[in-house]
Amino acid sequence: MQLGGKGANLAEMASIGLSVPPGLTISTEACQEYQQNGKKLPDGLWEEILEGLQSVEKEIGAFLGNPSKPLLLSVRSGAAISMPGMMDTVLNLGLNDEVVDGLAAKCGERFAYDSYRRFLDMFGDVVLGIPHTLFEEKLEKLKISKGVKLDTDLTASDLKELVQQYKNVYLQAIGDNFPSDPKKQLELSVKAVFNSWDSPRAIKYRNINQISNLKGTAVNIQTMVFGNMGNTSGTGVLFTRNPSTGEKKLYGEFLLNAQGEDVVAGIRTPEDLENMKTYMPEAYKELEENCEILEKHYKDMMDIEFTVQENRLWMLQCRSGKRTGKGAVKIAVDMVNEGLVDIRSAIKMVEPQHLDQLLHPQFEDESAYKDNVIAMGLPASPGAAVGQIVFTADDAEAWHAQGKSVILVRTETSPEDVGGMHAATGILTARGGMTSHAAVVARGWGKCCVSGCSDILVNDSEKVVVIGDKVISEGEWISLNGSTGEVILGKQPLSPPALSDDLETVMSWADELRHLKVMANADTPEDAIAARNNGAQGIGLCRTEHMFFASDERIKAVRKMIMAVTPEQRKAALDLLLPYQRSDFEGIFRAMDGFPVTIRLLDPPLHEFLPEGDLEQIVSEMASETGMKEEEIFSRIEKLSEVNPMLGFRGCRLGISYPELTEMQARAVFQAAVSMSNHGFTVLPEIMVPLIGTPQELRHQVSLIRSVAEKVFAEMGSSLSYKVGTMIEVPRAALVADQIAKEAEFFSFGTNDLTQMTFGYSRDDVGKFLPIYLSKGILQNDPFEVLDQKGVGELIKICTEKGRAARPNLKVGICGEHGGEPSSVAFFAQIGLDYVSCSPFRVPIARLAAAQVAV
Amino acid sequence: MQLGGKGANLAEMASIGLSVPPGLTISTEACQEYQQNGKKLPDGLWEEILEGLQSVEKEIGAFLGNPSKPLLLSVRSGAAISMPGMMDTVLNLGLNDEVVDGLAAKCGERFAYDSYRRFLDMFGDVVLGIPHTLFEEKLEKLKISKGVKLDTDLTASDLKELVQQYKNVYLQAIGDNFPSDPKKQLELSVKAVFNSWDSPRAIKYRNINQISNLKGTAVNIQTMVFGNMGNTSGTGVLFTRNPSTGEKKLYGEFLLNAQGEDVVAGIRTPEDLENMKTYMPEAYKELEENCEILEKHYKDMMDIEFTVQENRLWMLQCRSGKRTGKGAVKIAVDMVNEGLVDIRSAIKMVEPQHLDQLLHPQFEDESAYKDNVIAMGLPASPGAAVGQIVFTADDAEAWHAQGKSVILVRTETSPEDVGGMHAATGILTARGGMTSHAAVVARGWGKCCVSGCSDILVNDSEKVVVIGDKVISEGEWISLNGSTGEVILGKQPLSPPALSDDLETVMSWADELRHLKVMANADTPEDAIAARNNGAQGIGLCRTEHMFFASDERIKAVRKMIMAVTPEQRKAALDLLLPYQRSDFEGIFRAMDGFPVTIRLLDPPLHEFLPEGDLEQIVSEMASETGMKEEEIFSRIEKLSEVNPMLGFRGCRLGISYPELTEMQARAVFQAAVSMSNHGFTVLPEIMVPLIGTPQELRHQVSLIRSVAEKVFAEMGSSLSYKVGTMIEVPRAALVADQIAKEAEFFSFGTNDLTQMTFGYSRDDVGKFLPIYLSKGILQNDPFEVLDQKGVGELIKICTEKGRAARPNLKVGICGEHGGEPSSVAFFAQIGLDYVSCSPFRVPIARLAAAQVAV
Question: Is residue A110 pLDDT above 90, yes or no?
Fold first, then answer.
């Protein structure tokens, strides 16, 4: 069936009694077939269209060989989602020299020639790619020569002349006459709509918005109605409710004596929809009633186009209306209160991106700054940020201390920069993907970040950033849009996060509906409190290494540990760290009273804890810090250096090689747990061993941890129950999960590393080819952002099945970046995981996504 | 059943009519249970032993409370494989003050006290860990005080005195009396044998030799027979054939009037076994007959121990004899000719290591240089090499050109070093594992290499290598044993590879028996010829990038390609490379006439082709090479640098981002193929796309390759059939193999990369923890050497099943390093792969391993 199908909302509107101009819709499947067939119309489609038109409207004379009955057609995209680049323009299709006479006889000569010249302009521009400016020039010249200002001041004969000039434009531009056969016009237009599905802008839009389930665009062919037949006619667009605020009141624009394209193209400035009430009260009343009917029918806020021709209202299009986060939440709550939808439907009306908007600052008006966008990076952490540029973490802290708002600009960040990153209001990096250090840390804090912005060249030494031929110096103001990746020159006005009672209502529905638990990744007592406030039901990932950077004393002790050659030296350094770790754990246990806290043992390669700089600098700094000889330091650092650190000496490989490290961390956990438990808190510690690939590794670490627990419990005269489990992030672990489950009380998928190893993509280097892969359609999504369900997901399924077969009560969750990405959360819920853990600021999104998949 | 089981060769010898001293054997299962029970004898074992002894020999008075019938016991390891560290010493168990009198009455006082003092020495040393030197001192002092030179000059009363002194040694060393109860002695001895299974030397031996299927050691308890009862007695060891040459002639040593331990411990120098014929012709004749019986029974060359007591021959032990490669091959061929075994059995008598010995030079005598071993690295590529040290690839080439034999010593090698590596006779690196660049390249050439030798510190600038407090300078001689990892000071004598007709015979049997095809990894026409000569049935992996380093012009063209910013610049550089690639492919197709040649598209990250050195050097070198500005070069290099190159911009990611690269390579392949085909060669090209993770990637490359093929065929007016397939080295590819198989005509597992990503181990960095993992038993083997069947193997199985389900005639093979490792080859054959591909020098080993698994 080529006609009908998705996008056929005209037929649907007609079916519920609304006045709709006769027409037909070509299905999205036809578009798909067209693309796959090398841009040929599917067999039989053309005949079907002609037949369809005939059955719809006997009068369509022009297409059926009767130019004296000039009923024109509009051909436009009926895509399920409105997207830029799609051919969404109303055409007066069917006009030519013969038909225009018929039209003149019917509607007057001026109207006929005005329609004709508009049609020539649009058809040329949109269907044949002749630049609009070529037509515009002719119009402007004519107006000057006739001494008039407005288009409406031109007479019928002026317009007739213009028609001739426009036809010459065709000749010059395409070397051929304007196609006057209405059937040819129709065919070209249908193809143009299909082609617009594949336009670069439409592809980019779908990539950015992760729209991959659509087959193509439908095509609406409608008989034209005329909004420009004097003051009893007009045209308008509206939302059934205010899309920005959600207020229940028609929200739209109206133009008297005008066609729809005048509104869309911005040729004339439309009036508030309210005014229509005065001009044509009856049509307005019918419109209001239609809106109510449509909302009841579609159970949603609608985006509507209409035309009034000689006081008769025609509905031209309707679809679900786009809305802001604030609008979405209010509309959902209102519609439940109005009895229009139940909470199961309402929860689906709020999109995860809507929450992102509500939880982070946004720009007041994204369209206002478009001309100031100077570079594009990856939208690494959502929200908007405005500040003065600084180039070092130290400067960020210093300027912040002076009350300044700063944007930290780095080639890439390292754990050493964490202080400065925290002080900054936004972070911009030249390198690194969606899960680079900067991106992960920023998302953890809900701080705006644009990463992997390869357009910029950061020159630290001269404290400038070079973008093309622009040079921006320290202290200059820039703005970042972390939701789009835009880097904007200057200070753009911000609006703050918009929390509301309605949001609380929506979140309470989400919690009622979902089965999946949502925990948070949090490394400090402060993060833990934020997580709890955002509704986290525990901590699914506490990265102990982040604590190591919290102060100078700590990082010095860590470096002593790294430089240690003997186990004794290492133990001595670890003894210095123990009290810091213990006190952090105490704070976290206190904040998470009654909820589980999952603590991961040290994971990153040790060289990450070395200072930044060139080798000589590092060696001399470390020598003065540790009191060791420079050559010893040098040789130790040489030994630590790695070709592929991601696949190197890290994770449990550290704890197995240096058991005293695991012992210290376990000791800190258990001492803190017993102490907080003695203070009356309910402490539920879970120790998680990272980077396990074999059951032997886990057995080694588990037995170490359990023996430390026994010792600490004996020393402190008090014990408590705890769990020991493992991260699953090495593909091998997933493959031998049955054996690993024998040693583990829980599994937590580290989907970042699992994605890295399953794809063989380094998240730090993926920027070199990922953009190409996305643009060529080799990948649908960045797999570090949206879980790869077919590959990584398959491994997660295999692992979960094998693990639960070996240990039926095995707790299984995930704590990678995907834990806060809605489609990934849905996948985790569907395959039966027990929980997801994500950054505190994404907890509400995960709660919502978990509810949406449950309904 | 605790008694009997493996190692019970005594009972077996008795059963075929040989004279064996009565005794019993404790099974290996008992040893395993002992180890698992925290070193406690399994329940009931002790009672079973006593009962067993009673039923075996009623006379064992000492153990059954009758010291007047002094029949002594020997207790020793009966491990299936003789290994260092195992307790393999004959004990006169059962002696004490009472029993010694009975023994004196039976055999004379001198013999009795000599046995007693020997027993005290050995029991103390071996069972209780009292240093042998403490006893030795007493003996030496006594001899001095008595004024005698030889032990045999001591009188009975001297020895009696010595017994008392030895007892004092016990008191001082263990603070307790010598355990005089024979049952206690027996129990301690049995435990000592069990414990010796776990001794560090035995564990190390098993790790090195990849012995993991044994449960433990059996324990042989035998009644003692006495070789030291005058000149009608004696003891000896022999092989039934010469283990070095394979000659069919008894080969052994004999000592008149001596106990076995004298031979083993080297206290007295034994005579050639031939002499025994003169001393005791009848016993010798029986021994000869016994050897024939044993060879017929065990169908193998045997290693035998025996004692003659007063002209009566007693067989003490027999097991399969260890042999050299040369010996193994001759013995196998001879035994088939003698009708002793069929070729299915004979093929199992030649071990893969034997072939290694035959195919590479070896040291004449490995025991001769043990004191000169100055460092140990990884046995990266087998064989022996002797040469003068150089530190740069250029020096290696220059010295080699002067006719010198050189060993190239590097911290680690890079593709730039290939010329020097080829010129060197052996390669030694401080870093890198069994599959580091140096190791892989060296194995490909069959060149000796010791890699990852962390004992050494290479100082390039001063041209010295530091090992502990030794400093070795350029030009000094060293020797490398690539089969053991030993680095030896000085020039050690070599013997050349020992190829023979017998070897050809064995290999022809192997080819007759095996089902698995064996191909070779070869990158040049020369390698291809070597591969064909070694029996390769085609090339399974031709790495196109290795050709890039073959000359200065080539590498310069490659660097131009890398530095290109626009596709046009890149195409221009690629046009320079095309003729080189084409001529290499022509040579390879010519050499492989009639066999398939599998060509892999460019795989490594581009920065591997940059010159070595610090950044400044590279930039200036590249600027002069390419004529580009230094800052352009710098920025381009910056963009190429990667954090984890193994997971970065390489493999098909290059060919998809730069389609012109794939086009050039495909063009070179097809032009060469058509041209050689026109010259009358049978050309079977197969193009292999590396690092595929998604079907979309493969689809992109396959369509590019096929369109180039069409073009070339049209241009050259001739076509031929070819295949396009993919490497499977990314875990994701294995997981979605059904989809990938739709695009691929063959799969070739790249097990190096697959192992890296499945384990998350960088082969360049694994040296940091792998030794610890092996020593702690967390891993049984280096997974880069021996395929990890449980994890990586599981993925290979999943992939093969999914792939063949989607495309039943899919050809599946492997071309990673494991293709030449015997146990891995066996696995690949068992799971039904079609072929393995390995370095030309390992082809015979793979052929043998494939045959062994087939029989």
Answer: no
Q: Which long-range contacts (CB under 8 A, 24 or more apart) does B103-111 make?
A: B103/B70, B103/B72, B106/B70, B107/B226, B107/B229, B108/B156, B109/B156, B109/B160, B110/B155, B110/B156, B110/B159, B111/B226, B111/B228, B111/B229
**What's the mean pLDDT in A612-627?**
81
- Looking at residue A7, what is its pLDDT? 42
Mean of per-residue pLDDT scores for chain A: 89
Whether pLDDT at B757 is above 60: yes
Confidence of residue B210 (pLDDT cuts 50, 70, 90): low
Whether the CB of A1 is below 8 Å from some CB of chain B: the reply is: no
Q: What one-character DSSP code corresponds to residue B551?
A: S
**Could you tell me if A717 and A791 lie in one domain?**
yes
Chain A positions touching B764 (Cβ under 8 A) are: 642-644
Asked whether residue A580 is assigned to any structural domain, the reply reads no
Inter-chain contacts counted by CB atoms under 8 A, chains A and B: 177
Q: Which residues of A are catalytic?
A: 437, 815
- Which tens digits make up the pLDDT trace of B680-739? 999 999 999 999 999 999 999 999 999 999 999 999 999 999 999 999 999 999 999 999
Looking at the structure of chain B, the number of domains it has is 2
CATH number of residue A805's parent domain: 3.20.20.60
Q: Does A696 touch chain B (CB under 8 A)?
A: yes
Alpha-carbon span A595 to A192, nearest angstrom: 58
Considering the domain architecture, whether residues A458 and A536 belong to the same structural domain is answered as no
Q: Are residues A446 and A526 in the same domain?
A: no
Among the candidates B468, B495, B522, a domain finishes at B495
- pLDDT tens track for B122-180: 899 989 989 989 999 999 999 999 998 877 788 999 999 999 999 999 999 999 999 98
- The tokens for A126 are 């949109």
Q: Which of B62, B74, B73 is nearest to B101 (CA)?
A: B62
| Mean pLDDT of the A412-426 span | 86
* A644 located within any domain: no
* 3-state DSSP assignment of residue B633: helix
Tell me if B257 sits within 8 A of B233, measured CB to CB: yes
Looking at the domain assignment, is residue B756 inside a domain?
A: yes
Is B762 in Cβ contact with A642 (below 8 Å)? Answer: yes
Is B206 labeled as ligand-binding?
no
Shared-domain flag, residues B488 and B457: yes
Name the residue with higher pLDDT: A170 or A632.
A170
- How much is the pLDDT for B61? 45
Q: Which residues pair with B494 in a beta bridge?
A: B363
Q: Are B457 and B535 part of one and the same domain?
A: no
User: Do residue B643 and residue A646 have CB atoms under 8 angstroms apart?
Assistant: yes
B393 and B526 part of one domain: no
Does residue B748 sit in the same domain as residue B846? yes
- Would you tell me which residues 606-665 of chain B have a C-beta closer than 8 angstroms to some C-beta of chain A? 635, 639, 642-649, 653, 656-657
Pick the closest to residue B685 from B616, B573, B595 (CA basis). B595
Closest approach of chain B CAs to the CA of A207, in angstroms? 16
How many angstroms separate the most distant Cα atoms in chain B? 103
Mean pLDDT within B238-250: 92
Q: Which CATH number is B400's domain given? A: 3.50.30.10
| Residue of chain A minimizing CA distance to B755 | A732
List CB contacts of A181: < 8 A, sequence separation 6 or more.
A96
| Residue B437 a catalytic site member | yes
Q: According to the annotation, is B729 in a ligand binding site?
A: yes
Q: Which domain holds residue B692?
A: 514-544+589-602+652-854
Q: Is the pLDDT of residue A5 over 60?
A: no
One domain for residues B451 and B520: no
Q: What confidence score (pLDDT) does residue B213 get?
A: 76
Chain segment A775-785, per-residue pLDDT in tens: 888 998 899 99
CA A466 to chain centroid, in Å, comes to 28
Residues of B in contact with A691 (CB under 8 A): 760
Asked if residue A50 is part of any domain, the answer here is no
